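Internal tracking record. Fields below are filled automatically when a chain is submitted to the structure queue. Please do not edit lines marked as system-generated. If the sequence contains nonstandard residues, flag them in the REMARKS field before resubmitting.
Queue: standard
Priority: normal
Entity type: single polypeptide chain
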Amino acid sequence: MIALLKSYTHEFLNLLYPPSCQHCGEPLSGEGGTVLCENCRRQIDLLGPAVCSRCGNEIGPYAEEGACPRCSGRPLHFRAARSIAKYDEPLREVIHRYKFGHKEFLAGFLTRLVLDNIGRVDLDIGRYDCIIPVPLHWRRKRERGFDQILPVTKALSRRFGVPLVTGVLVRHRYTTSQVRLSRTKRLENLKNAFSVRNQVRIEGKEVLIVDDIITTGATASECARTLKRAKAGGVDVLTIAR
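SYSTEM-GENERATED OUTPUT FOLLOWS
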């Protein structure tokens, strides 16, 4: 009964306030047109197989042996990172509205984007022993009102039958936003920000860390370092965008 009432309420609100594209503002119509118009959806730049074997950055024709020049001599504690799409418009706008605009309904769109395109990344999701979302500090979660990556991790867990493990990797230190920081400053900002609780749950386990965005890889690398110090096995990373 409650679900039916919510459905009628949603339809009524759509009549009063027709939905518009979250990027360009054009009115939406047709199946699946609840977030982006068809034109904007086509502009999402999906990443293909031609990426760095380590960080997952698009490498282009100059790369040798699948390597990325940015990874040369750079300490990264994860084994491999992969992303579904580039962090360009219109995906950037959707993620920004989702994280900072309190538009939690966008979780469905981002989750479908990942599930529909997971085959494009060379990660065998089913082989991992557990999936761990990059954790928010409790203050950040309170400010934001929700954990933005949890819906995606839950969907991946259901799709591939891999246990979702939360509360083990913990962000125990509140950190400032990484957005305008250099890689060096990011590393300093994240130093000793994470810890592991109930270590036995990840000892010897193959772990997939999941987050919304990867930029320099500093956050993912620090998470991987923390997990490996707690005797986790291999650690890989999957993000929606990079």
